Every structure is written in C-alpha cells, then in structure tokens.
Amino acid sequence: MNVCVIGVGYVGLVTGAVFADLGNEVFCVDNDKRKIDTLNRGEMPIYEPGLKEMVKRNVDDGRLVFTTNLSKGVKTAKVIFIAVGTPPKPNGESDLSAVEAVAKEIALNLDDYKIVVNKSTVPVGTGNLVRNIIEKHRRSDVEFDVVSNPEFLKEGSAIADCLNPDRIVIGVPNHHVAMALLELYAPLERTMLITDVESAEVIKYASNAFLATKISFINFIANLCERAGADVSLVAKGMGTDSRIGKEFLQAGLGYGGSCFPKDTLSLLHTAKKFGEDASILESVIAINQDRVPRFVRRIVARLKPLNRKVIAVLGLAFKPNTDDLRDAKSLEIIKALQKKNAVIKVYDPVAMDNARSILKGVTFCKNAYEAARGADALIVVTDWNEFKLLNLEKLHQEMRGNFIFDGRNIYSKERVESAGFEYHCIGKQ
Ligand code: UGA
Fold this sequence. Notes:
Structural class: alpha/beta
Bound molecules: uridine-5'-diphosphate-glucuronic acid
C-alpha cells in the first residue's frame, strides 16, 4: 500500500520505518529540511535501538523515502498519517497548530479519495477539527475520511512496541474505512479494536493518564513506606501479583518524565475542565509527580547541608533508559535545584551526553560513571540504565571523597551498597 507519514518525529519516523518494513511504499515528509537531510545521509535524529538498521534496509530497498515534498507524498498515498507534534500551551492545552497546518496542506493537495489518519496524540474532537479544515480548503469535492489511530509505542523499545502492540485502536467514521487500516496492520497479527473516532481519541489519553496514575499512586505509597518503615519494592510486588492490578508501572522513583505523560495528563485535565468535569483525581496525580524532585532534593540537602561547593555526581540524564531524550527529564530539574544551592555538578549518561551539552550549563561532562564519581561527595542515580546496575561499587567508592549514594530509581540493594562502604538513601524504604 502507498502510505504517507507527515511529521518525522519519534512516532512518525518509527511508524514509517515499520510500515516500510512490512512491505509498503512509504513517503516520510517533514518541513524540517535539516532533519530530512540527516535521514537521507543515513543518520538518525534520535537514539532508538534497531531503528537505524531498519531505516537503512528499507531505504536501500527503495520502500522508504524521506522528503520535504508534502504534495508528492499526499498525491502518491492512499493513507496519510498525521504524526506531527502537539506540544502543551502554558495552560496545559495541546497546541494543535501543526496538526491544523498539515490538515490544510493535505486539503490543498487532495486529488483523489484519501484516508487521513491522526496518529499524533490529540484531544477528543480533533478528528472533527481536521475534517472541517480539509472540507474548507479542498479544491473540489474530492472525498476523504478522517480516522484516529493512536500510537502506544514507548521510547527505547519503539520498534518492538510498534511490531507487537498489545492492541491496535482504529477509530473510524464508518466500517468501510476500517478495511484499509485493517489491511495495513494485518501482517502484525495483533488484536485490533475498531471504535468511533472520539472513543479512539479518548483511549489514548485515558491509557497514558492511567499509567501515570499507577506511577503517582506507588510514589504516594513510597512516601508512606518511608515514614512507616515498610519497603515499597515489596509492597509493589505484593500488589502487582494480583492480576487485576498487574506489576507494570509500579516502580517507585523520581516520577514520570518524558514527552508524553507530563504533557498528556495536563492536556486531559484541560479537556475535562473544558467539559465541566471534576478532575481532582488527575490533579492529585500531577501534584504527586511534581513533588518527586523537590522531595528528593530535600533529602539530599538534609544529609549534605550545606551544599555550597559540595561535589555531586549525577548518573543518568535521559528521562528513562535506552533513549537520549531529555524532554521533561528529572535530571534537568534536579541539577537546577542543586546548582541553586551552589553544588558542583558532574554528569554522565551512556547516550544522552550530546543532547545534554546544549541544555546543561555549568556542569562537568564525564566519560563514564567512575570519572563522574572522582572527588564527589555524593552520587545520585537519576536514570535506571542497566550499565549503572553493573558498576563496581568498591571502585566507585575509592574514586569518591564522600560516601553518599542517593538512588532515585532503587537500582541497588542496601546490603550491597553498604558493604562497599556507602551510606545509602533510596525511595520508599529505610
Ligand atoms: C509512554 C507510554 O508508555 C506509551 O504507551 C505511549 O505510547 C507514549 O508514552 C506516548 O504517548 O507516546 P514513554 O513516554 O516513551 O511512553 O515512556 P514510559 O516507558 O511510559 O515511561 C514514562 C515515564 O514514567 C519515565 O520517566 C519512567 O521513568 C517513568 N516510570 C515508568 C516510572 O517512574 N515508574 C514506572 O513503573 C514506569
């Protein structure tokens, strides 16, 4: 099938590569010429395991094309995916200006029946909005349909998630339209759920907000465990073995970051308010998450005060492992708070260092964890990279001046860290 994906961000790029890998002819369009040039040189604008190889294979075979030529992409395709960004406005509302601009461009190039698919995360009602824009700007009475097909991939495991999704949600205005999407996704042999457009739009936000709720809930329990002398890891295990609860997304820590949960919870909150619905459940989820870093910093300060000129090694900058993404990363928030108290910051991340250089000021970038630890008074774990779990703690201890570890992701066991000579502080346990 001929497919056009507009917007070569995380979702668009991975979706385009996977559709091409399934044997479709895919045009990936972006108005950022630099990004398209980068991709045409065979370089990836993001770090995602397996992506580079998949892109190369399909570009070499001629099934995957990167271009700024939206007109050609739209005219060639039967199905057009909109996968542009929907960043938050200051009031939490999703900024749909990129979606609106693309809808207009599609309308101006509509020469034949097309299926326009919203893959961007967009609030309920956006399907209608896109439909209205295309109707207004199309040059003739060419037919088209607008579908909602939200994406559920996670950064760091995007290819695997895209190839093996738990479910594929297709929100359609009529069942006839669903056939083309069913055909496109059929090779994956996964569960497909056909809904109306509005339900599909809500499913995306409800899923992300529910996962964020699980995280904030376990972080609230972690706070309680710290006071009551319980161990949140054991509590999460005990809860998670109940199949109705499930063990995923019950890892207590510094809270959720990244480009999705913070933005999507705020957007859903805005939508609920717009419809006049009480959303205090979401307000609590967001408030708990926003207090994770201040609470962690308070614990560091309480033990190390005064922080003035104390050297702190920060392990992990990416918002989670297996990505170089720093959007809404807890590291940035923590480093800013510690710098405000005049701490000296040394940092290391396995893949996010290049991205961090343009964002972080006044820190020392180190080649590895041991170099970051050299001369430090305390070491803090911000991202749970596997590499950090396997560090030689005795060697780390020898490198340091002080002996504190503040483990924001509970990657170590207290016994192991203490036997290496450290004083250990973690989340949700003594
Ligand atoms: C999330 C969803 O998991 C995807 O299903 C969705 O498609 C995506 O948003 C999106 O809307 O595009 P992602 O943001 O890539 O994916 O990352 P997650 O793995 O969900 O992690 C989000 C944050 O929650 C990270 O900061 C992570 O450290 C944190 N987290 C996750 C916890 O603190 N505890 C957990 O138990 C799990």
